[in-house]
Amino acid sequence: MTSQRLLNCHASDFRKMNRDELLQAIKASEGRVLVSETVCAAPPLYPGVTNQEIVTRFGADLLLLNMFDLFNPVIAGVEFTGDASALIDYIKTLTGRPVGINIEPVDPHAKPVEQLLKLPEGRTSSEHTLSALKNIDIDFVCLTGNPQTGVTNDEIERAIKRTQALIGDDVIIIAGKMHGAGVSGEAGGLIIDLETIERFVQAGADIILIPSPGTVPGITVDMAHQWVKQVHQLGALAMLTIGTSQEGSSAHTIEQIALQNKMVGADLHHIGDAGYTGLAIPENITTYSIAIRGKRHTYLRMSSSPCR
Hints:
The chain is of the alpha/beta class. The chain has one domain (31-303): Aldolase class I (TIM Barrel, Alpha-Beta Barrel). It contains 10 helices and 8 strands. The protein has an 8-stranded parallel barrel, surrounded by 7 helices. Helix 7 packs parallel to helix 8. The radius of gyration is 17 Å and the shape is globular. It starts with 10 loop residues before the first helix and ends in a 5-residue tail after the last helix.
């Protein structure tokens, strides 16, 4: 297993890593790994370049693709059409970054607080969808929910078990909710608790997703710190997230969230896709990166060629 921290990895290092080596590289970076999420079907911020390339060049370490339909795959800005495997490979070639996708564990028995959307199967955690991932070179799966999707913690737990059984030896499993996802009783400070964290880790999650303090009502720094302590005691890692459009906030807000997440004990920091349509405000990615690891590591990540 590699002893190299992710901070010092280039594209050629990422290409050689298996799931355990990537997890170790994240852990060795001591809370200085930045995950940037993008909506695959959203038009590029600027023509001629994909949003995935943009967030890469502004400092992202890992790329999380949102609303990627495995059975009808689209990545806006990509000049050719192909199957899901070809599109993922192309994005990895363009960016030189590890790539993961959101999979949504929709609960048909969820109690909604708003009208829920009906998702295509290729975005959900059905066995058919998860089995299709066997043939795609992704590095991680994030079991979470977009707004109005009816994703519940109970269904996330079941999805973790299915994912672990089908592809758990090959991909990192991230699990948790960034917001309520339209479900009654699982919003604000009720999104997660110590019992749910234990259930997720026992089911096979490698990384537990926790909303950043200040992003959803009621989650404080002390509360999140207790959750992260529980995650670490159980041998997993923690990813603190911005999934409430605050990726479009002021630089000061981004810096505050970033430093709070460091205090909480985050192993990974996530910034969402709704600053502009489909990606964070690019400058906020850089601001977040500088806040958690300084200009040295930020500029190295921004400027390192995918050919290295």
